[in-house]
Design brief:
Order of helices and strands of chain B: HEEEEEEEHEHEHEEEEEEHEEEEEEEEE
Number of domains of chain B: 2
CATH topology of the largest domain in chain B: Thrombin, subunit H
Largest sheet of chain B: 8 strands, antiparallel
Largest sheet of chain A: 2 strands, antiparallel
Radius of gyration of chain B: 26 Å
Strand content of chain A: under 5%
Radius of gyration of chain A: 27 Å
Strand order of the largest sheet of chain A: 1-2
Number of helices of chain B: 5
Number of strands of chain A: 3
Structural class of chain A: mainly alpha
Number of helices of chain A: 19
Structural class of chain B: mainly beta
Oligomer: heterodimer
CATH architecture of the largest domain in chain B: Beta Barrel
Chain lengths: 396, 404
């Protein structure tokens, strides 16, 4: 009996020893490297990335399969990091990044994801000399290697990328660039159709971080694209945007960016966006604001009963002598759009058939107003719109 | 003046401010009735409702391409709505009639562009993206449109024939400077041409401004902005870039600037064309699997092929519609493999960490990672079911892609 107890005790001690050694190796691997402070484009306020390895290890402890990094891809990533130290030109850097991405796509997806995650967990980074640029198929330029690796991870294992972003990037709030990449990953992980709670809460953290908002960089500006996908942000966003548009020169470009965000919000969620503006007339009330508001209401589609109702309410609210009224009647039907891709994808443009149907509906809508004698002080201006709509509708 | 200086500084980097030269090529009126011939018949004036005008070119039955710098000054929003297109106007005095009322514009403003607030009228950063697409639901040029040279930048850099058409005095009623002698109203609204010439254009700074090129010894005028710069393709004049700017050196010699068609600018134009409907067989395609018999998805991997053919160029965007009926979608992992063998994960649900929800339905799911790949060939859709307990059916799948 005593022998058995001794054997069990020895076995237990041996297991404990193995566990301690194993943990020690893991901790060594997780030691962070210093983020290169030369990364100007990315607002790295704090190079330290929290110990996130344990979060992902939980996944393994829950019984899922553990995937080892791909040693070849890992060597390629180290090589890439070394090459970036050589201050190469833009084209060379883009070629190197593309080549690495191809290698990652060719590798086993689980091993590739493990390789990228290991790099991110270790906290390594290197400036690329590129800008933060969004293209039709996602990010086209990444100012830092970490941003590139995160974005690539999102293409290979969206779930892992999302988990990493949620547990590490968002709490750290150390880089607008990584934060913007994280928002895009959340958007894709949610199916790129509806904003997830993670995306909404993370976006608000970015929007409300004063030090970022006061000196917005490209990544922060591009993140405003999610306003167009999340009507719940409108009260906070439009309140701030009203201040920017009241004095655009002092807004560091945020007034123009807000205008673009509102354009897309109106296109994606016309009823939610414009109802909110009608219910809060103080919004967009100063400076350039009223002209922007006019341009948004001039986008309404009278073919949709809910939007037609909003159009009627807006006309009822207009001072016929105001500059806003002049801007609205000049612009309607307003179909000028920015077609540049955003972090949430390409804007949804009106098709030829939609435009034709909308113009016909608008003509009928204003004809009804003229017949009923509504808005007597606006009749002259409505007659001008009618002429324009007739011209558009009769030319086919 | 400050804005002009900024362009001059940028151009001066390349030209050298002390260089002087003769104006070798200046605009001259296009002979009357020649406007029915190419390339003049693709040119025209875009006119805003207070009368000012700008050059432009039809590049699609419903698209007219012009310059964007007139739009950059937001409070002056006259250029953003109520724009009319006067096709191949080459007469005496103002164009008669009202022209074609355009439906709207697509511009290429992006959020990041606003970081330094809007650029000045002649800032190279602005000129580098200096074009807008005016669109119409009606035909703009009788259904005709100009052919183009996709790498206009490479063409313009060579000693090859070039031509500029447009309206150097445009609808500006008080021409100044070099054009003060254009006081004859009969000439003022005439279509003009500069060239043919073979002067080589040079990049202002190809790294910073990949679309902006300039040339010396060739001049245009204020209303030339937006007008086409032509090169020769297959023996015909073809569109190679948009006239964007004019600046002067210390000796009052003018430089012209051009937004050249190039790799990145072509992306934008092909995107705009794709929005109104691609040219047949050239720019987009939709490849359906829905007509093949449904296939059982059980433990193991099901592979189906998309055979893509007849596409020109390389993958630009790719989207997938997919319907898989399955008792537990978190058993599934879906991948797409290119003809060259590269594989991208479409959905990685095969780890059972998700919910036990049924059925996997993707609509318009953007497939990332294949941009720049050859489009033609066999694309393989793989659906892997990692667990034996549940089974399902691959009901339908379709792949849509555009190329550039």
């Amino acid at each position: 009996m005593r022998k058995i107890i001794i054997y069990i005790g020895a076995g237990f001690l041996l297991l404990l020893l193995v566990w301690v050694v194993f943990r020690g190796v893991q901790k060594q691997e997780a030691v962070s490297q210093t983020v290169d402070s030369r990364n100007q484009a990315s607002k790295h306020e704090n190079a330290f990335h929290p110990e996130d390895a344990s979060k992902d290890l939980e996944k393994n402890e829950e019984g899922e399969v553990f995937h080892s990094p791909d040693p070849v891809l890992k060597a390629e990533l180290n090589n890439l990091q070394e090459r970036l130290k050589q201050n190469l030109g833009r084209d060379s850097v883009l070629r190197l990044l593309r080549e690495f991405a191809q290698k990652a796509f060719f590798a086993d997806p689980d091993a590739a994801a493990a390789t990228l995650l290991e790099f991110l967990r270790a906290g390594g980074d290197m400036p690329t000399g590129l800008e933060f640029a969004v293209g039709e198929a996602g990010l086209e330029e990444w100012p830092s290697l970490r941003a590139f690796v995160m974005d690539l991870l999102g293409k290979i294992d969206l779930g892992a990328a999302s988990q990493y972003a949620l547990t590490t990037v968002i709490p750290a709030e150390s880089s607008t660039v990584e934060y913007a990449v994280a928002l895009r990953i959340f958007w894709l992980d949610g199916g790129a159709e509806q904003a997830t709670p993670e995306l909404i809460s993370s976006w608000f953290r970015l929007f409300r971080k004063t030090s970022w908002a006061e000196q917005p960089d490209a990544a922060w500006m591009e993140s405003l694209d999610f306003v167009g996908r999340m009507p719940t942000t409108l009260p906070d966003f439009v309140t701030e945007a009203s201040g920017w548009l009241a004095d655009p020169a002092a807004s560091s470009g945020k007034a123009e960016a807000a205008q673009l965000a509102l354009e897309r919000s109106t296109r994606n969620h016309p009823v939610e966006t414009l109802s909110a503006l009608l219910e809060n007339p103080v919004w967009l009330g100063k400076g350039r604001g009223p002209a922007v508001r006019a341009s948004l209401f001039a986008r309404l589609d009278a073919g949709d009963p809910a939007q037609a109702g909003l159009l009627g309410r807006y006309l009822a609210s207009l001072d016929p002598r105001s500059r806003e009224a002049a801007a609205f009647f000049k612009a309607f039907p307003y179909r000028t759009f920015s077609v540049s891709p955003g972090l949430s994808g390409l804007p949804d443009l009106q098709t030829k058939e939609e435009i034709i149907a909308s113009n016909l509906a608008a003509e009928a809508f204003f004809q009804g107003i003229m017949v009923n004698g509504r808005f007597p002080l606006l009749q002259d201006k409505i007659a001008q719109i009618q002429l324009k709509l007739k011209e558009l509708n009769n030319r086919r | 003046m400050k804005m002009i200086t900024s362009l001059f500084v940028a151009l001066g980097l390349w030209f050298g401010a002390s260089v002087t030269f003769a104006n070798e090529f200046a605009p001259s009126p296009v002979p009357l009735f020649d406007e029915d011939n190419a390339p003049y018949k693709y040119s025209g004036i875009l006119q805003r409702n207070d009368g000012l005008g700008s050059g432009s070119v039809a590049i699609h039955p419903q698209l007219v391409l012009g310059c964007a710098h007139v739009n950059f000054d937001f409070p002056n929003s006259e250029w953003l709505s109520d724009i009319r297109w006067h096709w191949k106007w080459n007469g005496v005095g103002l164009p008669p009639g009202s022209g074609l009322l355009m439906d709207g514009q697509w511009n290429f403003d992006s959020y990041r562009k606003f970081v330094k607030s809007r650029y000045g009228l002649l800032d190279p950063r602005a000129l580098n993206t200096d074009f807008v697409v005016n669109y119409s639901t009606a035909n703009t040029a009788g259904g005709e449109y100009a052919d183009w040279i996709e790498r206009g930048d490479l063409y313009l850099a060579k000693k090859l024939p070039k031509l500029i058409t447009g309206y150097p005095i445009g609808l500006y009623t008080n021409p100044v400077g070099l054009y003060a002698n254009y006081t004859d109203p009969a000439a003022q609204y005439r279509m003009h041409e500069t060239g043919p010439f073979s002067t080589q254009f040079q990049f202002v700074d190809s790294r910073k401004y990949p679309n902006l090129m300039g040339a010396r010894g060739v001049i245009g005028g204020q209303g030339n902005s937006g007008g086409p710069v032509w090169g020769v393709k297959d023996g015909q004049w073809a569109f190679a870039g948009v006239f964007t700017s004019i600046a002067f050196d210390t000796a009052n010699n003018p430089y012209i600037g051009v937004y050249a068609l190039g790799k990145s600018s072509w992306d934008r134009i092909s995107s705009a064309i794709g929005t109104v409907g691609a040219l047949p067989g050239q720019l987009s395609g939709n490849f359906l699997l829905s007509s093949v018999p449904a296939q059982t998805v059980d433990v193991g991997t099901v592979r189906r092929n998309f055979t893509v053919s007849g596409m020109v160029g390389f993958v630009d965007t790719m989207t997938l519609d997919l319907v898989i009926h399955h008792n537990r979608r978190s058993d599934l992992r879906v991948e797409l493999t290119s003809p060259s063998g590269a594989t991208v994960m479409v959905c990685n649900l095969g780890n059972r960490t998700g919910t036990s929800a049924k059925n996997l339905v993707c609509t318009g799911k953007k497939i990332l990672g294949f941009r720049g790949f050859h489009a033609n060939g066999v694309w393989i859709l793989s659906v892997k079911d990692a667990y034996p307990e549940n089974r399902g059916t691959l009901v339908s799948a379709s792949l849509a892609l555009t190329t550039h």
